[in-house]
Amino acid sequence: AMEKSYVSVFLLLIVISCALAKDAGKKDTKDTTAKPKLPQTLSRGWGDQLIWTQTYEEALFRAKHSQKPLMIIHHLEDCPHSQALKKVFAEHKDIQKLAEKFILLNLVYETTDKNLAPDGQYVPRVLFIDPSLTVRADITGRYSNRLYAYEPSDISLLYSNMQKALKLLKTEL
């Protein structure tokens, strides 16, 4: 009978904390808009069903320990080029499938790591990093003035560059 009372106390605690959370939430709904705001996920719209890391440090740690390459997308929410690339990236079924083989990170701010901006801090830009934590500066897009930029029309090049990042990995390790 002892265990049962523990269980009921535990359930009561859960109920209480849920109720408190609801009350806390109510205060914030003064400026209610017609459309409920979806919780902002780490994907930021680049692939909601994919697992995204939160920080560059976490991404490096995971790449090293999982032996998966890391793909970093630098973008800005109010940049039309970023938005356009995000749309085709998220809707590209093959890319979304292939992305599962990567540690993923999308950033709306610059890190202090200069290796992530080999030719400048423009957006959108996509870089790959090996599990050995080497930035793959050799995997580039088609623009000589912005080596790691991709336009929506370059989505198949980005896809083949993702394949390249995985393939080179196998031959080098």
From TrEMBL:
Instruction: Report the sequence similarity comment from the record.
Output: Belongs to the AGR family.
Q: Which organism is it from?
A: Dicrurus megarhynchus
Q: Which residues form the signal peptide?
A: 1-21
Localization per record:
Endoplasmic reticulum; Secreted
Q: Which domain of life is it from?
A: Eukaryota
GO CC annotations, alphabetized:
endoplasmic reticulum; extracellular region
Protein's UniProt keywords contain Secreted: yes
Principal location class: endoplasmic reticulum
Keyword tags: Endoplasmic reticulum, Secreted, Signal
Q: What GO molecular function terms would the record report?
A: dystroglycan binding
Q: What is this protein called?
A: AGR2 protein
Whether Flavoprotein counts among this entry's keywords is no
InterPro entries xrefs: AGR/TXD, Thioredoxin-like_sf
Biological classification of the source: Eukaryota, Metazoa, Chordata, Craniata, Vertebrata
